[in-house]
């Protein structure tokens, strides 16, 4: 751990949050001289202070320890770059339109890698007026089910959460050409081009 890099990061994040050294120190029940020492690279925060420091500076502990935020390259938010993440513990669904570091239930999440839908994981589509009617014969038990269905174009995403023991019979507005994704809790993420 490079104390100088950590100190520079703490200083820049403190200023970004609009805090003086004294305000940060008071919030953590430490002296402002301690904060000054960190920012000059003459020492690093004690491990017991990192969770509170992380909350106050609005950055994760890992970034504080590395002393670097490594911002992502600006991609313009193209929805076709959407990545899906699902927590294996609680089933929480998250998306990003570029590289992201996400965690849930204390675990780092990896972006799901979509596979082209096969015969056992294909959604049936029918056009009804200005909507797509979507259904599937995929089982929807508590042990094996489709967790969500999402349609993604270059500028829009429409995501519908699904639940075990509910049949899939839903309508999505027709939004041009794109990819229809669905996530099976046993087999992963699949896509179909529409």
Q: Termini separation (Å)?
A: 49 Å
* Broad structural category: alpha+beta
What is the number of independent domains? 2
The proportion of residues in beta strands is 25-35%
Q: CATH superfamily membership of the largest domain, which one?
A: SOR catalytic domain
Task: State the CATH topology of the largest domain.
Answer: Immunoglobulin-like
How many separate helices?
5
Give the overall pLDDT as a whole number.
90
Write up this protein.
With 194 residues, the chain is an alpha+beta fold. The chain folds into two domains: 3-66, 434 Repressor (Amino-terminal Domain) (Orthogonal Bundle); 79-193, SOR catalytic domain (Immunoglobulin-like). Helix content is 23%, strand content 28%. The chain has five helices and twelve strands. The strands form four sheets. A five-stranded mixed beta sheet has the order 5-12-11-8-9, with no helix packed on it. A three-stranded antiparallel beta sheet has the order 6-7-10, with no helix packed on it. A two-stranded antiparallel sheet has the order 1-2. The protein is elongated and about 70 Å long. The mean pLDDT is 90. Pfam families: HTH_3. Keywords: DNA-binding.
Topology of this structure?
Layout: H1 3-16, H2 21-28, H3 32-39, H4 50-57, H5 61-66, E1 83-86, E2 93-96, E3 102-104, E4 107-109, E5 115-116, E6 124-128, E7 131-135, E8 146-152, E9 157-161, E10 169-173, E11 179-184, E12 188-193
Parallel strand pairs: 5-12
Antiparallel strand pairs: 1-2, 3-4, 6-7, 7-10, 8-9, 8-11, 11-12
Helix pairs in contact: 2-3
């Amino acid at each position: 751990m490079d104390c100088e890099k950590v100190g520079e990061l703490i200083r820049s994040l403190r200023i970004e949050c609009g805090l003086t050294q004294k305000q940060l120190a008071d919030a953590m029940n430490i002296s402002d001289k301690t904060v000054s020492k960190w920012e000059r690279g003459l020492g690093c925060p004690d491990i017991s202070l990192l969770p509170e420091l992380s909350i106050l500076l609005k950055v994760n502990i890992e970034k504080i320890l590395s002393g670097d935020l490594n911002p992502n390259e600006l991609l313009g938010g193209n929805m076709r770059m959407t990545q899906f993440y699902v927590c294996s513990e609680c089933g929480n669904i998250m998306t990003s339109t570029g590289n992201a570091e996400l965690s849930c239930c204390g675990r780092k999440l990896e972006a799901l890698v979509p596979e082209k839908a096969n015969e056992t994981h294909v959604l049936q589509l029918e056009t009804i007026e200005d909507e797509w009617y979507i259904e599937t014969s995929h089982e929807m038990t508590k042990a094996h089910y489709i967790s969500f269905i999402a349609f993604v174009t270059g500028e829009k995403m429409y995501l519908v959460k699904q639940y075990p023991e509910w049949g899939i019979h839903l309508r999505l507005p027709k939004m041009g050409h794109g990819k229809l994704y669905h996530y099976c809790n046993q087999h992963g993420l699949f896509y179909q081009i529409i």
